[in-house]
Amino acid sequence: MSKPIVLGNISPMIPAGTDVAGAIAFYEEQLGFTTIYTEGNPLTLAIVKRGSAEIFLYQNDDHHLAKWTTFRIQVENIEQLYEEFQAKGGAMFHPNGQLQIQPWGAKEFVILDIVGVCITFYETIL
Prior knowledge:
By secondary structure, this protein is of the alpha/beta class. The protein has one domain (13-124): 2,3-Dihydroxybiphenyl 1,2-Dioxygenase, domain 1 (Roll), CATH 3.10.180. The chain is 20% helix and 33% strand. It has helices spanning 20-29, 63-67, 78-87, and strands at residues 13-15, 34-39, 45-50, 53-58, 70-74, 100-101, 106-112, 118-124. The longest helix has 10 residues, at 20-29. The termini are far apart.
């Protein structure tokens, strides 16, 4: 009898612009991630993690790619996370990304990182 196939967490690789160290600082200071790996001198790759969310930041200054890169991170206690980010000034919020309930049964908000990558934090409510 074979075991069922189980998909685990996804770890996106996202463009960090030309300043990977600056991207690391944003993810650590603004979003509360911890850097678990870096590569290169100057930095060309980093892995940041918070909870089960793991993101690979790689050096790439293609602004078009960053602008069209988007992903979603599932959250428990989303109101608390939203308040945490607001307490840090809230400058990272997408202009239309305030905390709201969506018709597909998610409560979510959206931020933009320093190169324009769009990250939606969501909690399923239905």
